Amino acid sequence: MTNGSPIPGDSAALGSASDSGLSGICCGVRLSSIRTVTLPCPAKLNVFLEVLGRRSDGYHELDTVMLRTQFCDMLTTQERTDGALQLRFSDATAESLQHGVPLDERNLILRAADALQKRAGVKLGADFILHKRIPPESGLAGGSSNAATALLALRQLWNLLISDSDLHEIAASLGSDINFLLSGARAAVCSSRGELVKPVPLRGTLFFAAVRPSAGNSTGAVFQGVEFSSPRRRSTEVVTCLAEGDGRRLASAMFNRLTVPAQNLNEEMTELMGAMQGLLKRPVFMSGSGSTVFVICESRAAALSDLRQIESRLRRKGWLLEV
Ligand code: C5P
């Protein structure tokens, strides 16, 4: 179990895009005297989530399996010499996505940058330009991924000698999902409140068709509704399916304890899950605390076909999530 697993991009030199390792699609450039780096912020998907118990700190003890998908926001980070930290959306960010994502100190990017600035005693600042694609309150950890990427970008831009485990400590102080995204793992079992990351092997490529209802879910409210009457499940079977690349068996091992409490709070999501199940004749799952719901698909073509059906019959636009 580690909080300090290797972080991609650790030794990446500014300007050598391909060295960064984060999904292999980053680009770093040096623009005259402005130092800039652009990195992806991948969405995560939970294929297993059990709530083991309530903790005295108000959080819940988890056994969850997270996958890093190819669906990403992009974050451009530019160094500032005056110490200020500022965040704005890229021009390409859809207006609908800008609602619900604060650009002030409530945003995890600025909170992560501030925490790193203080921890490292840095006088430099940064401008962040966020190309948002992952909707907020979706159970895909978009905000957490933004924060993980901001930490990696700033370590590089500010030339900090701060260790992986120090970055993980900052991440854990800000939220429960940031450590997984910071770890760079493709798949991991995450425990404690989610911040302890143990990478696990994943064979082959997995494809999912995912849709989000218009209403998101509040993570705190969903956790409040968990009931502990049934016996607890464990992630062992899901981990085996991932190691063997057995998508079919995975479909019958996937589970999310937060589904029922989330359904109790989000009628639109409940209806969408029922409609998807009726249309595709397969079990439908929820990621994290929702409200993104998804099915596992046998191939990219099958996922695209599911998404076409969802669009034409349910009038919903979804995404192909590839892991
Ligand atoms: O860690 P994060 O800030 O994402 O969590 C948001 C909220 O979700 C917490 O304030 C807490 O109410 C709930 N939560 C929880 N147990 C967890 C993770 C989150 O109760 N393991």
Labels describing this entry:
323 residues, alpha+beta, eight-stranded mixed beta sheet, four-stranded antiparallel beta sheet, 12 strands, globular, binds cytidine-5'-monophosphate
Describe the structure.
Helix content is about 35%, strand content about 25%. With about 325 residues, the protein is an alpha+beta fold. The strands form 2 sheets. Strands 1, 2, 3, 4, 5, 6, 7 and 9 form an 8-stranded mixed sheet that branches. A 4-stranded antiparallel sheet has the order 10-11-8-12. Helix 2 runs parallel beside helix 3 (about 140-155), helix 7 (about 235-245) packs antiparallel against helix 8 and helix 9 crosses helix 10. The model is unreliable at about 1-25 (pLDDT under 50). Cytidine-5'-monophosphate (C5P) binds near residues 60 and 176. Cytidine-5'-monophosphate binds near residues 59, 193 and 219.
Helix content: 25-40%
Bound molecules: cytidine-5'-monophosphate
Report the radius of gyration as a whole number of Å. Answer: 19 Å
Question: What are the secondary-structure elements, in order, as H or E?
Answer: EEEEHHEHHHEEEHHHEHHEEHE
Tally of DSSP β-strands? 12
Question: Mean of the pLDDT scores?
Answer: 90
Main β-sheet: number of strands, strand sense, barrel status?
A: 8 strands, mixed
- Beta-strand residue percentage: 25-35%
Distance between the termini: 22 Å
The tally of helices reads 11
Oligomer description? single chain
User: Structural class of the secondary elements?
Assistant: alpha+beta
Principal-axes geometry comes out as globular
**Contiguous uncertain segments of 5+ residues:** 1-27
